[in-house]
Amino acid sequence: MAKVRGLLIRSVVLDATALTAASQAHSDIRGVLRRWQDDGANLVTTAATLTEVLRGHPRDAAIHRLLASLNVRVIDAPLGQAAGERIGRTKTRGNVTLDALVAEVASSLPRPVALLTSDVDDLQALVDPDVMVLDIAA
Fold first, then answer.
1. pTM value surpassing 0.90
2. 40-72: buried (b, 16+ CB within 10 Å) or exposed (e) per residue?
3. CA distance 100 to 122
4. CB of 104 within 8 A of CB of 8?
5. What is the largest CA-CA distance in the chain?
6. pLDDT per residue rounded down to tens, the chain (138 residues)
7. Which domains are seen in the chain, by residue range?
8. I need a surface site. Which of 15, 23, 92, 119 has the fewest CB within 10 A?
9. What does the angle CA 84 – CA 49 – CA 61 come to, to the nearest 5 degrees?
């Protein structure tokens, strides 16, 4: 399993900024993801995240290559309902629908879970307390 802060990580979730960063040619994140996957971590993103990063442009090719190594969670009615209830339970304000979907997926995965993002504050407010939110900019 992949290690973060001395813990073995079973699941890693990428939000839109992490997915975009990992798809870039000289990304440090790509190398880290490869090592984590080699160590047995399940790499995940959401179908909703794809709406944030894919534009039907040739630049999407790098993201499509990365997607070949990720599990993409489909957004169905139960997941959408749970994400909406998560927003209500956490009393989060603003445009957090896509973040709530990512948080719900992260919170549903086998522990320990790491969620990669540049939006640490918003996602930290939405995830379960035992989900590690890691800043890709750090």
1. yes
2. ebbbbbbebbbeebeeeeeeeebbeebbeebee
3. 9
4. no
5. 40
6. 456 666 789 999 999 999 999 999 888 999 889 889 998 999 999 999 999 999 999 999 999 999 999 999 999 999 999 999 999 999 999 999 999 999 999 999 999 999 999 999 999 999 999 999 999 987
7. 2-135 (3.40.50.1010)
8. 92
9. 170
